[in-house]
């Protein structure tokens, strides 16, 4: 075998030289010889025990065994089934040969004998079939070692083993039978099936057909549900493999077992309030199953939406929302990972489902008299939680609740009633008795006391969801005014102005303390800016309120031009400026669209302004197509890290702040907001072009030429005014064309390649001339099209008249011929009439002459016919001779041809 010889050659390369491994090679070879050729059974068993020991402890022996030992041991498994001890020893040796030696740490580039042995054994389909057949043996250790070998093969050669098992009759069935075996074998079989069903749709179908759901939930119940050990985790991992993106399996589970066994795992009973790490992992796995059911099948499945809707409906009917609220909201002693997963499930459960949203809004938590709506409790988590991941998960609940839910947004906005300043300064514990709106407004103003803007930005995120795409809520919140801490500090100010003041505070802190700017400011500023963008978009009254303070426009201009601002802070500030242009209905000087554009041009420059938008568009959050909420499947390897999410948050909180993939930034710049910004940018560019192409609404300066000079009569004054107006119109047209061309160039290129007009003095005139020529060309093309249409119409009419004339000419000729025929007939009749009148007799017919003439004609025709027959006869003779040469029977071919001629006569006779 070439592969075996190659393995032999690798030994020397891996372990120094050939001599260094010769002892192990020779020792393994002697043991294999004793096993295969030994006479005494006891000696063979001793040899296989020694072989197992040396292979389990020595890499060189492991590698040598792979080159020589597989044929010997596979022969034992095939031919010596009755010798249980030999079969056990062979299987245990195979397990040792396929298991990496843990205490030996070699280089990463070093060849691993265990991996090489796995690859060698998995290449033979007969070996896999032989191992599966051993699962039917009665001996416990034979079945146990066989499952361990299959698991080792599956670790390193997954696809190959999956394909091999599919080709073996009843291969999956034998593995499923092991789930009903003794506990140790059952656990090994369960672990093997979890690896085997990953991304293997055909195997998943067979496993489900073999009753996997019933066996899984039976084992979970036997192990104690969520309080069970790692076996429950393996069962749930297998269940998730069968349900992930598989609508048919989800339907089968729903219609057979139902969701009750799964939901019962989420119940917390008595002492279950203690959360061990294993229980945390089990709950996370069960919550992942709930999430898979709410996601439905693949995106390409025709019935994906219907299946997902049915799943969520059944889950709500089974009171899953109560259990999720208990885990995610009420059980604050539960691990952060469990609370976050439960909150995400609540968000998925209500997303796009009006009934489920109503169910959540009507839920109250706690016990009398301390009860409050569930939404209030979730809002408190957002404002108070010290966990970044918990804030993101709770915020997702409000995002799902408010998305395309006008009634829900209006209901929440109706509770936004300002409270006296004394109530806002009350202890945090007193917010239990507050309404939703009061608690939210308090979160927006908490920063006034200690300068910590974290609660403010979290409350701002919730307010963003309430205002999104809802003009009525935007107008309502626009009327909210907050009291000053004391009357001496000024009159109440609108809530919007309060939020802009927080942005100014952030800028001031960033300029003084760069370390703060590199931490919380990374996401606090974009969250507040996102609120203002959602508020001002499509709401001219909000734009007017924003521009009522001249400071706001100045602040945005400084934020855009400040080189120390982050890409997102300056980019979103540029979007805010564009919205002030796009949805500006003001006519006040300096606050109208023209005034905003003029301020941008003077303070920032259009080139720099559009570059800020382009820089934000090129960032990772905008260019990445990955979904923010994609979650990897929960496996044994990843479960421990997810269970310890509290530690991960603290450790990563400082290292990820400077990265664009910060979790809060990813949640802020979700796909919907990114698409909204991209659409806004296109509208802003178009609006800039339109504003540049329009003159100012008012004339600020009256030229002296408009005044009538002394001694100037009215006629000369009128002529001079007319000339002045014509000159002004020409200059205005030039300026408008120049501005429109400049704005179009900037809108298309974002400022790249832009050069100032004073560097190209003739550029504007050239563009105007080209534009005029282009307009003339368009007019000429239009006239040409009109002429072509008229020409086609005339040609059509001429063709119609020509056809009509031809028809009339034909009719006239027919009439003329008919007239000539009538004249000839009339002339003949008149001649006969004259002969009759003169008493003459009609000439007698010469019968004999007629007969002779007819006979001559008949003879001529007969002669012609004879000539034709002669010609045909000569053709027949030639064809007959040719057919004879070709070996055809001419008489047989001509037989019956002459009889056909009589058929018509026979038919006529029959008819007679």
Structure overview:
By secondary structure, the protein is mainly α. The chain is built from 48 helices and 4 strands. The strands form 2 sheets. It has a two-stranded antiparallel ribbon. The chain has a two-stranded antiparallel ribbon with strand order 3-4. Helix 3 packs across helix 4 and helix 6 (84-98) packs parallel to helix 9. The two termini are 96 Å apart. Residues 1-20, 625-629, 646-658, 697-701, 751-765 and 900-912 have low confidence and may be disordered.
Sheet with most strands: 2 strands, antiparallel
Mean pLDDT: 79
Content of β-strand: under 5%
Which term fits the overall shape?
Answer: flat
> What is the CA-atom radius of gyration, in angstroms?
48 Å
Describe the strand arrangement of the main beta sheet, using strand numbers: 1-2
The chain-level structural class is: mainly alpha
Helix share of residues?
Answer: over 70%
What is the overall number of helices?
48
**How many β strands by DSSP?**
4
Stretches where pLDDT is under 50 for at least 5 consecutive residues are 1-20, 625-629, 646-658, 697-701, 751-765, 900-912
The span between the termini is: 96 Å
């Amino acid at each position: 075998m070439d592969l075996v010889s190659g393995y032999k050659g690798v030994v020397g390369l891996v372990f120094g030289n050939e001599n260094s491994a010769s002892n192990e090679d020779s020792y393994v070879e002697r043991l294999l010889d004793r096993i295969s050729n030994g006479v005494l059974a006891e000696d063979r068993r001793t040899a296989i025990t020694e072989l197992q020991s040396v292979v389990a402890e020595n890499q060189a022996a492991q590698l040598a065994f792979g080159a020589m030992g597989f044929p010997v041991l596979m022969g034992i498994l095939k031919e010596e089934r009755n010798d249980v001890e030999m079969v056990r020893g062979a299987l245990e040796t195979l397990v040792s040969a396929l298991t990496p030696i843990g205490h030996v740490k070699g280089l990463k580039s070093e060849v691993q004998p265990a991996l090489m042995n796995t690859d060698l054994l998995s290449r033979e389909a007969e070996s896999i079939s032989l191992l599966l057949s051993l699962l039917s043996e009665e001996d416990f250790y034979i079945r146990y070692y066989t499952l361990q070998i299959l698991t080792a093969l599956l670790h390193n050669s997954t696809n190959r083993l999956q394909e091999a098992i599919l080709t073996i009759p009843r291969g999956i069935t034998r593995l499923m039978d092991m789930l009903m075996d003794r506990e140790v074998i059952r656990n090994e079989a369960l672990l093997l099936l979890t690896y085997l069903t990953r991304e293997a749709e055909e195997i998943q179908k067979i496993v489900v057909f073999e009753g996997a759901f019933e066996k899984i939930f039976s084992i979970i119940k036997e192990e104690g549900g969520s309080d069970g050990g790692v076996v429950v985790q393996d069962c749930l991992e297998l269940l998730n493999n069968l349900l992930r993106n598989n609508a048919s399996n989800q339907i089968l589970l729903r219609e057979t077992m139902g969701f009750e066994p799964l939901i019962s795992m989420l119940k917390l009973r008595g002492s279950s309030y203690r959360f061990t790490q294993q229980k945390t992992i089990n709950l996370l796995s069960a919550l992942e199953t709930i999430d898979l059911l709410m996601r439905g099948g693949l995106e390409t499945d025709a019935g994906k939406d219907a299946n997902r809707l049915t799943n969520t409906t059944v889950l709500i009917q089974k009171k899953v929302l109560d259990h999720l609220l208990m885990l995610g909201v009420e059980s604050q002693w539960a691990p952060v990972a469990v609370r976050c997963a439960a909150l995400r499930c609540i968000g998925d459960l209500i997303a796009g489902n009006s009934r489920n949203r109503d169910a959540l809004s009507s839920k109250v938590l706690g016990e009398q008299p301390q009860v409050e709506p569930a939404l209030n409790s979730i809002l408190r988590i957002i404002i108070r939680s010290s966990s970044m991941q918990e804030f993101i998960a709770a915020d997702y609940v409000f995002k799902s609740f408010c998305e395309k839910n006008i009634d829900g947004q209006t209901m929440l906005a109706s509770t936004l009633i300002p409270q006296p300043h004394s109530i806002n300064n009350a202890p945090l514990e007193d917010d239990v008795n507050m309404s939703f709106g009061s608690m939210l407004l308090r979160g927006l103003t908490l920063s006034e006391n200690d300068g910590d803007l974290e609660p403010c930005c979290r409350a701002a995120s919730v307010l963003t969801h309430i205002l999104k795409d809802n003009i009525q809520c935007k107008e309502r919140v626009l009327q909210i005014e907050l009291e000053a801490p004391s009357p001496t500090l000024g009159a109440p100010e609108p809530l919007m102005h309060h939020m802009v003041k927080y942005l100014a505070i952030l800028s001031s802190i960033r300029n003084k303390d760069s370390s703060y700017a590199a931490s919380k400011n990374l996401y606090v500023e974009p969250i507040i800016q996102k609120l203002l963008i959602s508020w001002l978009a499509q709401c001219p009254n909000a734009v007017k309120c924003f521009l009522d303070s001249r400071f706001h426009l100045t602040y945005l201009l400084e934020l855009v031009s400040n080189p120390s601002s982050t890409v997102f802070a300056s980019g979103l500030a540029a979007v805010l400026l564009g919205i002030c242009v796009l949805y500006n209905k003001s006519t006040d000087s300096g606050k109208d669209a023209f005034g905003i554009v003029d301020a941008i041009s003077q303070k920032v420059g259009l080139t720099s302004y559009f570059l800020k938008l382009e820089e934000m568009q090129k960032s990772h959050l905008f260019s990445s197509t990955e979904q923010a909420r994609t979650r990897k499947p929960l496996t044994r390897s990843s479960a421990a890290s997810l269970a310890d999410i509290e530690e991960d948050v603290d450790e990563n909180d400082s290292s990820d702040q400077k990265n664009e993939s910060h979790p809060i930034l990813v949640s802020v710049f979700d796909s919907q907001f990114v698409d909204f910004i991209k659409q806004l940018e296109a509208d802003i560019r178009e609006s800039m072009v339109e504003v540049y192409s329009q003159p100012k609404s008012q004339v600020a300066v009256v030229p002296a030429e408009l005044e009538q000079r002394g001694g100037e009569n009215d006629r000369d004054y009128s002529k001079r005014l007319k000339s002045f107006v014509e000159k002004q119109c020409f200059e205005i047209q030039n300026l408008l064309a120049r501005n429109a061309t400049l704005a179009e160039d900037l809108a298309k290129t974002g400022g790249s390649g832009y050069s100032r007009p004073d560097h190209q003095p003739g550029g504007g005139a050239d563009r105007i001339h080209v534009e005029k020529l282009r307009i003339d060309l368009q007019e000429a093309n239009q006239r040409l099209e009109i002429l072509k249409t008229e020409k086609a119409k005339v040609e059509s009419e001429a063709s119609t008249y020509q056809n009509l004339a031809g028809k009339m000419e034909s009719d006239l000729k027919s009439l003329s011929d008919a007239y000539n025929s009538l004249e000839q007939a009339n002339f003949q009749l008149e001649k006969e009439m004259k002969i009759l009148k003169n008493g003459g007799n009609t000439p007698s017919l010469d019968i004999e002459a007629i007969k002779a003439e007819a006979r001559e004609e008949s003879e001529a025709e007969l002669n012609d016919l004879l000539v034709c027959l002669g010609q045909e006869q000569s053709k027949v003779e030639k064809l007959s001779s040719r057919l004879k040469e070709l070996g055809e029977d001419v008489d047989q071919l001509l037989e019956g041809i002459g009889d056909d001629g009589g058929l018509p006569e026979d038919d006529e006779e029959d008819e007679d």
